[in-house]
Amino acid sequence: MLFGLLKWKYEFKGTTINILEGLRMFKTNIVLLFFMLFVFTSYRYLTIIKVAPDFYSADYPKSFYDLRNGNEWDKANDIREAYDAFVEKAEINGFIK
User: Are residues 37 and 69 in the same domain?
Assistant: First the structure.
């Protein structure tokens, strides 16, 4: 379908243009904004239906997120508490600034 749009020709002020040339004629960045919004919402939808992977969050270890996503909240909270205690102890000892 996308290739069909690119191949399709339009009449504009006596010249024949394709869809990309028409979009380039805009003087603002609205086309780029819509494209970025489309990409973001598409990626977000694909992560919700578990087709695309989530970005990794370095706040807690990966095992915390695996357990949380598997609905094992008790184990996930144990890991979170142990990790927070570890980070706090490391900050007190000067290993993390």
Answer: no
The total number of structural domains that make up the chain: 2
**Residues 42 and 72 both lie in one domain:** no
Amino acid at 57: S
Are 54 and 47 a contacting pair, CB within 8 Å?
Answer: yes
- Determine the residue type at 55: F
Rounded to two decimals, the pTM is 0.41
* Phi, psi dihedral angles at 12 (to 5 degrees): -140, 115
In a domain, 77, yes or no: yes
Neighbours of 54 (CB within 10 A): 11
The whole domain housing 72 covers 62-92
pLDDT in tens, 45-69: 998 888 887 776 667 777 777 787 7
> By C-alpha distance, which of 29, 8, 33, 28 is closest to 20?
8
